[in-house]
From TrEMBL:
It is found in: Endoplasmic reticulum membrane. Belongs to the CAF1 family. It comes from the Eukaryota. This is Poly(A)-specific ribonuclease PNLDC1. 3'-exoribonuclease that has a preference for poly(A) tails of mRNAs, thereby efficiently degrading poly(A) tails. Exonucleolytic degradation of the poly(A) tail is often the first step in the decay of eukaryotic mRNAs and is also used to silence certain maternal mRNAs translationally during oocyte maturation and early embryonic development. May act as a regulator of multipotency in embryonic stem cells. Is a critical factor for proper spermatogenesis, involved in pre-piRNAs processing to generate mature piRNAs. The lineage of its organism: Eukaryota, Metazoa, Chordata, Craniata, Vertebrata. InterPro entries: CAF1_poly(A)_ribonucleases, RNase_CAF1, RNaseH-like_sf, RNaseH_sf. The gene is Pnldc1. It is a single-pass membrane protein. Its main location: endoplasmic reticulum. Its cofactor is Mg(2+). Keywords: Endoplasmic reticulum, Exonuclease, Hydrolase, Magnesium, Membrane, Metal-binding, Nuclease, RNA-binding, Transmembrane, Transmembrane helix.
Length: 532
């Protein structure tokens, strides 16, 4: 189900009821970009600690924005069955406020979205507004001071506003007090923004929504206008303006209050955008970010970390994409002795996902994500009990078998395997690092070293000293291959990195210790000679 600004307000009460009844919710996001290439050394690297990666990702999250958020709400019925309501929310930053919002597009990301049929018109013209707490506080201040403005128009385009103003200004010159006119064919967000713009532009008009996409405009005296503005029946009260401007943030807060398990796939960037766009700007501190996310969502499950475990414990083919994992879990008889996996049924409004694959549509990927979680958890539960599982296992039983993966989010190519949002991050066991000693090849750069080894395998490169570089890989076979092939290279001597031998700081300390020891020996010898 695709949801834009026009229909969002009507959907919100129903969404709230479904989330409160849900066993868990799964999400996925599409962005205007992932990693900013305009920032130096911003590419993810195996050398990155979690804190270093966070700094890089934070810069990218601040430059890019969300275009679509998919939410799949999984509700358990009495039988061994989960019903899924899946939504695609098109999002666009709130334009109702004093400060305009700027964001960046990555050409490759736009091509990627276009290839998979993303509706850019829906994003631009009918995107649901949103704001974080800082932006909301600024808007509140301007609403109280009467200095707010519409920065630009996404939900109501400029032509609609101009047409409304032209109609009213043409009519009002000949109209008498208490005369009325009707503006028609306005969607939900037009209804609010047209009223706000008219009231700000003309002090002798009053507006009221009539329903059925209509707004009544009435000519009034300034005194009557003031009385009406202070009335409790005003449909453009400041709290309603704020509610409208917050848009999707209202749903985010429902999710936070519901405290349902939140499921995603490779979800670090998703969590960072959730924090930045709907909660607060990302803090500088990595640890503070972790604490904030854990407070917002105490139970997080990343299906990437779960499926890694399934691949190790079960005879599971090594596949990478979420769609491939889903296909394997659906088609393979990985657990022939145990009870059947729960039935996962799409609600009537989402049935096209059962008939047609829609990869990289956020609502579809959220549905895949939740389905992979249920099937993986069922498989792990059966394996842990040798098939002695209830015919209708509860979701709490699945959470118990998934306990080791809860709050551990996959960390792509870095110093840890996962980020632990409820504890310390455990270090990752990488293959040994290699050190390259360059001889007779002056001026070699990290980029040139990377290109040299790229043809054989992928290494991340970091300069160690003037003539030495460290190589890191996440595959043991690549390490063995390079050690073998470069054994007799005329210019590049490759060996396993030993900290005590190759670290510049250790070498410097040894040199200083040697000098101090030498001076001590000389002083002792000279002192002894004098005493003789």
């Amino acid at each position: 189900l695709g949801v834009g600004a026009e229909s969002f307000a009507r959907c919100l009460p129903r969404l709230r009821r479904r989330i409160l009844r849900a066993a868990f919710v799964a999400l996925d996001m599409e962005f205007t970009g992932l990693h900013s290439t305009s920032l130096q050394n911003n590419e993810p690297s195996l050398f990155d600690s979690p804190a270093e990666r966070y700094v890089k990702a934070r810069q990218s999250v601040q430059r890019f924005t969300l275009v679509q958020l998919g939410l799949a709400i999984f509700s358990k019925e009495n039988s061994n069955k989960y019903v899924v309501h899946s939504y695609n929310f098109f999002l666009f930053p709130s334009t109702l406020g004093i400060r305009d919002v700027e964001f960046t597009f990555s050409a490759s990301s736009i091509q990627f979205l276009s290839h998979y049929g993303f509706d850019f018109n829906k994003f631009l013209k009918d995107g649901i507004p949103y704001m974080n707490e800082v932006q909301e506080k600024i808007l509140k201040q301007h609403l109280l001071a009467g200095t707010w403005k519409v920065c630009s128009t996404s939900c109501a385009d400029r032509d609609v506003l101009k047409k409304a103003i032209d109609e009213v200004t043409s009519w009002i010159t000949a109209a008498k007090e208490e005369d009325t006119m009707i503006l028609q064919d306005l969607n939900d967000y037009h209804v609010l923004e047209v009223q706000l713009v008219l009231r700000q532009a003309l002090e002798n008009v009053w507006t009221e929504p009539l329903g059925d996409k209509k707004v009544m405009v009435k000519k009034v005296s300034p005194e009557q206008r003031q009385l009406l503005e202070n009335s409790s029946y005003d449909h453009c009260q400041k709290k309603l303006i704020l509610l409208s401007a917050r848009g999707f943030t209202n749903l985010f807060q429902i999710l936070v209050k519901a405290k349902k398990p939140l499921v995603g796939h490779n979800m670090l960037m998703d969590l960072m955008h959730l924090h930045d766009k709907f909660y607060r700007p990302l803090p500088e501190s990595y640890e503070e970010f972790k604490r904030n996310i854990h407070n917002l969502f105490p139970v997080i499950i990343d299906t990437k970390t779960v499926t890694k475990s399934v691949q190790k414990k079960c005879l599971f083919p090594r596949v990478s994409s979420l769609l491939e994992v889903y296909a394997v879990l659906c088609s393979s008889n990985l657990n022939p002795k145990g009870p059947p996996c729960p039935v996962i049924a799409l609600a009537s409004g989402c049935s096209r996902y059962a008939e047609k694959k829609s990869p990289h549509e956020a609502g579809y990927d959220a549905f895949l994500c939740g389905s992979v979680l249920l099937m993986s958890a069922h498989l792990l539960l059966c394996r842990s009990t040798d098939g002695a599982v209830d015919t209708e296992p509860s979701f709490s039983q699945y959470l118990t078998v998934l306990a080791e993966h809860v709050n551990k989010v996959n960390f792509i190519r870095g110093g840890v395997s996962s980020i632990n949002f409820s504890g310390e991050d455990a270090p990752c066991r990488h293959p040994p690092a290699l050190v390259v000693h360059v001889r007779g090849w002056p001026g070699l750069t990290e980029r040139q070293i990377y290109q040299e080894f790229k043809a054989r395998c992928r290494f991340d490169v970091r300069r160690l000293s003037k003539n030495q570089f460290i190589l890191l890989s996440n595959k043991h076979k690549h390490v063995r291959l390079v050690l073998r092939d470069y054994r007799h290279h005329p210019h590049l001597q490759v060996s396993v990195y030993r900290h005590w031998r190759h670290s510049p700081s250790v070498n410097c300390l040894l040199q200083i210790s040697g000098i101090v020891a030498l001076w001590s020996i000389l002083a002792f010898a000279l002192g002894g000679a004098r005493s003789c």
